[in-house]
Amino acid sequence: MRIVGLGLRTSMTEIASEAKALIFMTARDCEMYVRQSLASLSRQTLDDLHVLFIDDRSDDDTGVIAAALLNDLFPNRHTFIRNETRLGKSRNVWEHLRPRTKMAEFIAMLDGDDQLIIPTILERMSESYAGGQDVVWTNFVTDGGGVGGNGALDPNLSPRRQGWKTSHLFSFRASLLDNVPEGYLRDDAGQWFMAACDIALALPILDQTRRYEFIPVNAHRYTATNPYSHHNLDPQSRGLNSTTQQRSAQEVFNKPPLPLTRPAKTAATPVVANVAAEHRAPATRVATDASQAWQETAGQILVAGYPTLLDAQSAAGRDMLTPMQIWALRRAALSRGDTPNILHIGAPRSALALASILSGLDAGLNCLCLSPEQVGDMDARFVASGLTEGISIIESEATSINFEEFSAAFPDTRQISEDIKFDLVVVDLWNTSYPAESALVALPALANNLSPRGFGFCLFAQDSATEAMAAKRWASVSSGLKFCLDAIGGSGLMVIGGR
């Protein structure tokens, strides 16, 4: 490989002193978008930045346009490189970005066809790095009006177990890139990743630290309509993911995590506990005597009416449901007639509560599990609680389900005949190993098995923001459904169809 500067070597000014931010921009054949991209960067209130712009052997005028704009907008604050052959983003990271990690405190990723839409966002990120964070990211919108699925990561869990939440706008402390081996930017065959390159870079960065922050704003506009994007070139794409991207992403996630060298500065209060307090219990969300009184009243009535409920709770594990949550599930189940057919996916706590409520009724409770280990765990909990009658535990393979731009692992519901209809579905992903995005594909995945005479659909996602996003997305593509947030005992998402 040889790097040529199109005669613009004088405009390439590599600074000796460290800037706050190094903006890494790669572009190929995006002459329609690169002006807006660089203009959006020039509006940032953080002046202490350096732009590293790579024209990856464009066939159009991307490089010519970018070189001129960089001279005008970022004099003495940019480096322009044109590759003589196309390298792809992962190799560009290795060849051009990694040797320049000493140039800035943190690196932010901005593709040449995308834009920043909050002028203060880089300054806000700089404040986070000054406060000791190592990775900072935001959410995004698409040029078609879609909203991204980014979110916070639990510092108590490996980021590789939490799905893809850190895409745009992604930034990280520059020195972390020095520790990433070359092999993490190559696929299983040893070739440089040409798809899912953002994931290939982000995961080994995230492996090393738990000092990260999600800023919950839509600061980045992703140009999903670019005809040269992977997902637009592949007729088999699912949302924003081509088949090549999906395959590459799986290889990335399967790589062993790098050693954690920068744990949280202080013992992290478990995100599970913090979110659970907000997510599950009205008594902690609104700390009033009245809300606590409702919890106590519901608990007394439930225990009196369902003596086996204590047995169910004793085997539910640490993340037990609150009385008001169980009361809401009871109402959802029993409102579907005397013989409801119910499907459960996810955490055992809600399956055990349903088993207790349905005990003695001519009802069906079907629990769909992803592995023999999940089947064994669920079965053991039912046996331990003495709730084994009328329960079916079904093992299903995991498959990738797609909805709009989201793609996530979910039980393969195609193994369930379309003739089988469910009056109530409970998808409980709280504190499970399911990726957060699994919640967003749950209703579409089960649509063919919902009772046409009317059904209830209860979703406990990993956090309330994901539930709100699911309600918004599902409402945009459906008619006749009703969506209620926090309607499962002050938590979750309730979807009602038919009646």
Please tag this protein with its features.
499 residues; alpha/beta; Spore Coat Polysaccharide Biosynthesis Protein SpsA, Chain A; Rossmann fold; 2 domains; nine-stranded mixed beta sheet; seven-stranded mixed beta sheet; elongated
Give a verbal description of the structure.
The protein is about 35% helix and about 20% strand. The protein has about 500 residues and is an alpha/beta fold. It has 2 domains: about 5-255, Spore Coat Polysaccharide Biosynthesis Protein SpsA, Chain A, CATH 3.90.550; about 275-495, Vaccinia Virus protein VP39 (Rossmann fold), CATH 3.40.50.150. The strands form 3 sheets. The chain has a 9-stranded mixed beta sheet, with helices on both faces. Helix 1 (about 35-40) links the parallel strand 2 (about 20-25) and strand 3 (about 50-55). Helix 5 runs parallel beside helix 7 (about 245-255) and helix 15 runs parallel beside helix 16. The longest helix is centred in the middle third of the chain and has 17 residues, at about 290-305.
